[in-house]
Automatic annotation (TrEMBL):
Gene Ontology MF terms in the entry: 2-methoxy-6-polyprenyl-1,4-benzoquinol methyltransferase activity
One Pfam family recorded for the sequence: Ubie_methyltran
Pathway connected to this protein: Cofactor biosynthesis; ubiquinone biosynthesis
Species this chain originates from: Diversispora epigaea
Lineage per the UniProt record: Eukaryota, Fungi, Fungi incertae sedis, Mucoromycota, Glomeromycotina
Bilayer topology annotation: Peripheral membrane protein
The protein, known as: 2-methoxy-6-polyprenyl-1,4-benzoquinol methylase, mitochondrial
Binding annotation for S-adenosyl-L-methionine: T113, D139, N169, A170
Amino acid sequence: MVFQVRPKIRIFKLIYNPCIRNFASTTYRLHRNENLYENKYDTQEPKTHFGFKSVPENVKQTLVGQVFSNVASKYDLMNDIMSFGIHRCWKDHFIRTMAPGPGTKLLDVAGGTGDIAMGFFNYCKEIHNDITAKATLLDINPKMLEVGKERFSMTSYEKTSQIAFELGNAENLESIPSNSYDIYTIAFGIRNCTHIDQVLHEAYRVLKPGGRFMCLEFGKVQNPVVSLMYNLYSFQIIPVMGQLVAADINSYQYLVESIQQFPSQDKFAKMIENAGFTIVNNGWEDLSFGIAAIHSGFKL
Ligand SMILES: C[S@@+](CC[C@H](N)C(=O)[O-])C[C@H]1O[C@@H](n2cnc3c(N)ncnc32)[C@H](O)[C@@H]1O
């Protein structure tokens, strides 16, 4: 009997002790960092949120830049782990909702490592046997863009010159002419921008008349039980996973906080409408109980 129980206790300790230590150090580090942020940016500048912290507007972009520079090499792996691969289903559904026709010209803003542009090309090739579709993958972060370039270098889409890469800010698409794209996409990118109104204004400008704005972003969960489970998972598990897999707890803490700060689906749909887009039905479709949502508007 004793012989059977003791090894079990040892295995239990082996697994749970590091976890408990991790949670304790996580809580301590988060508390310490929050205080550091508050002291560091005590200025008169207009403030915005960086996760749950309040920072001067002109500092947010640098902080967001640091987050994505830190996570770039582990970004795709962490997405798969954190979402149990579900982000792939959301992105597939996003592309099927877009249903691009042959020769479509796509601007994928905050395109990061290229999931949306890649899904777009695959769809055009599989459904229409089309190799004339074109996409520009634009991102503010050179490291994220580098990972995207590397991925595309292994595909035919680069050889056929269908893909182009641009370093740029969603809030000021200065290199993109007005009325030049059929579809504008931004997936899990807009909540990281400082001025969402400005991003929507630029999206409207660069789309051709008749063009479509599509955004895939985290949303608010209405079901109270799912919401509770989701919040527990987001705040207790994801930052710890970020520490274990990417050795970066702060970036993943920011990511979950930034999700909470993003407007609810109806408020964001109103912002899209205010930017001049025509929305159909209520303007969005909830995915997985509203954990994510697809927003869409037309430039008519
Ligand atoms: C969560 S990732 C999403 C990447 C990709 N769209 C996807 O769905 O996997 C967010 C991306 O937004 C980019 N980003 C943040 N602020 C930006 C801005 N102001 N302009 C352009 N890109 C921005 C980041 O560099 C990062 O690559």
